[in-house]
Design a protein that fits this description.
Elements lengths: L1 H11 L10 H28 L2 H7 L1
Length: about 60
Amino acid sequence: MPIAYRTGNRWLENYPYRISPTWCMFATAALLVAFIALTTVSFHAVKAAVADPVKSLRAA
């Protein structure tokens, strides 16, 4: 995150109208990534738990 902050800040210095990157932008991005990952893993875990094991063993 410090590298992204530094790079983003340097890149935005070239524009006359710019925003300053704040910690809440990075926190929001991190929470969004964590939410998407947790949702994906949970979906696949429930899908595997509900699946019929006999059907899986026969296919193997």
